[in-house]
Amino acid sequence: MTRKERWQTLLDLLVERGELEVEPAAEALGVSAATIRRDLDQLAEQQLLVRTRGGAVLHGVSYELPLRYRTSRRAAEKSRISETVAALIVPGEVIGLTGGTTTTEVARALAARPDLATGSPALTVVTNALNIAGELVIRPQFKIVLTGGVARPQSYELTGPLAMEVLGQLSVDTAVVGVDAFDPADGAATRHEDEAAMNRLLCERARRVVIAADSSKLGVRAFARIVATDAVDVLVTDTGLSPSVAEAFEAAGVEIIRA
Starting at the edge strand that comes first in sequence, how are the strands of the sheet with 181-183 ordered? Predict the structure, then answer.
């Protein structure tokens, strides 16, 4: 197991349990206690956890892993989903991308499409995600429109009145939305109300709404609703989607594409 993999596992365990002790963590990862202590010290230096005498605890109840430490979760599924979503986009479209690990992979898949290598522009991308704008702005064939707003360090998303003012004056062809949860009865949702408000407005400004989400996020609920299920046109997910949940989505008029 590499250091990066150890760190990811430690952070996942910490989020799951709320606290970690060195000896049980060392046993779970199959490494020495000294290695775990060193890893926890280095993670604490990055302000990803708080060290205690016997291990580590979360910063607080609102703790959320920064985006760069969530990218390896269900990586294979996200890769297939992102490529499938990217294939739905027509050259010349105006697309909206919310923040998140899956939508970041969608941006990379769009950048890799040969038929989008040229154009004036090949795509117009509207986003409130600083990391997505940073990755795509180096490609001159893409026109990048970044909303203003206040940056959330965990997700790199811009939110707030400034961001909504800009987004409210734009129209997009396809909105690609990342979510924390999507339930047939409760709709699409995220953990933070400010992100939900931005994502909701993007959906309202779009002709087509595509949700990109792996199956672990489907049939579950989250705190802040983005949109109702009937506002979603397409769901792109993996083959782990259960038949009963799929049937409920289809009954609500959502087209399902399994990657």
Answer: 181-183, 187-190, 224-227
* Three-state SS at 31: coil
Contact 218, 237 (CB under 8 A): yes
In tens, the pLDDT along 131-182 reads 999 989 999 999 999 999 999 877 889 999 999 999 999 999 999 999 999 9
In contact, 208 and 173? CB cutoff 8 Å: yes
Average pLDDT in the chain: 91
Residue 188's CB is within 10 A of a number of other CB atoms, namely 28
CA 244: distance to chain centroid? 25
Strand partners, 257: 236
Gap between the Cα atoms of 237 and 128, Å rounded = 23
Whole-number Å distance between alpha carbons of 162 and 155: 18
Q: Are strands 172-178 and 94-97 parallel, antiparallel or unpaired?
A: parallel
Q: How far apart are CA 101 and CA 179, in angstroms?
A: 10
* Gap between the Cα atoms of 38 and 42, Å rounded: 6
> Which residue type sits at 205?
R
- Look at residue 152 in the predicted model and tell me its pLDDT: 86
How many angstroms separate the CA atoms of 162 and 172, rounded? Answer: 18
226 neighbors 197 (Cβ within 8 angstroms): no
Tell me which amino acid residue 216 is. Answer: S
The residue assigned the tokens 């989505």 is 249
